[in-house]
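Entry for the shared binder. Reason: the reviewer on the internal report wants the predicted structure included alongside the sequence.
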Amino acid sequence: MHNSRGDYDGGPSIPMFVIDGDGNATQAGVSDQDSNYWNKVRNHMNKSIWGLTIAAALILIPSWVTTQEPVYWDIVDRIRSEGFDNSEVMDNAGYLADVIGPRFTGSPNMRQAQEWALARMREIGLSEVEREPWGDETVGWEVQRVSVHMTAPDYQMVIAYPFALTPGTQGPVVTNAVIATIQSPEDLDGYRGRLDGAIVLATPPMPTSPRFVQDAFRHDEESLGVFETEGIDLLINRHARGQPEQSTFRRQGISDAEVEAFYISEGVAVVLTASIGSDGTVYATGHPTTRDDRTRSGVENALPTLAVASEHYNRIHRILERGIPVTMDIEVRVGFDESDQRGYNVIAEIPG
């Protein structure tokens, strides 16, 4: 039964109503009391629906989320024992590094190392052992002989090593050394007509300074904690100042290729650069101008270029700065292998 307000006798009427943008029910002719009633009903239903949704989600959570996976410590101990007691890592690495030696991409040493690795992987029971080709064609290149000496004003055997993909000298080069450091195009005119047949020192001396700290440091609890929480290596911050400075030499407005083209046009025989590092350590990377042309002709058209230990390079440079002539004797022999100019990875699978 309806009363005069249009309500059922048993409670509020069930009129047509509109939910506004704030979620409130309103309709002309419906009292605020009735509207509040229906809003409470709607809120209660929403809460019930959310409760059912959460309950269903909890029921569907997989068991691995709520169950911790067991740790099989006996297996862990066996793995640790293999690593610490039965490891052959150093024996394998030693054979590659000591017996076979440096392995430039495509070189005979690399081929030998790959064949050794294939046989070794099969020997220890790996499956699907094979060489997988990759990359662009690169001529096989190897160093066969390096001989660098200062013969005047004093004799010194010089520690030096050719850059990768540098050509040979076609026999010994015995001639004067000349400083010809080109940092910008404006420097070219100062060296025109002065470099024919010369051995060129192409970079400034490498800055060096005495070290008052050891070469290696162990982390402590503080440094490990900071590294874990902040990603900051405190050892570098603490001890970096104790290391020798490195060269800040940079060319501006002229490329390495343009400098080498100038050296070639002037008749330069060999280019020497100061290596980073100290205590006789030499870092010889890729030849500056043959990185983009790794063919045999690209290598043979470049200049023989060597990195020299900073202590020896700096001595030669200092003598020349005094105006005293320096004579050097340099020979570099390299070999080429064009039988297969692809690079390879050696891959295998663990059975099971």
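Summary line for the report: Residues 1-69 form one domain.
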